[in-house]
Amino acid sequence: MESNIYSLIGKMWKSVTVHNGELWVSNSKRRSIEKFSEAVQKTGMMKSAYAWPYDRITAVSFNTASSDVEVSYLNEKDKEKSYQLEFLDEEEANQFGNFLGKDLGYGVMENKEPAWKPLGKSLLYIASILFLTIMGATVEDPSELGENSRNGRAIGKILALITDVIGQTGLIIVGVLASLVIGFFAFKRFKNPAQDVTYSQSLTPAQAE
Question: Is the whole-model pTM more than 0.85?
Answer without folding.
Answer: no
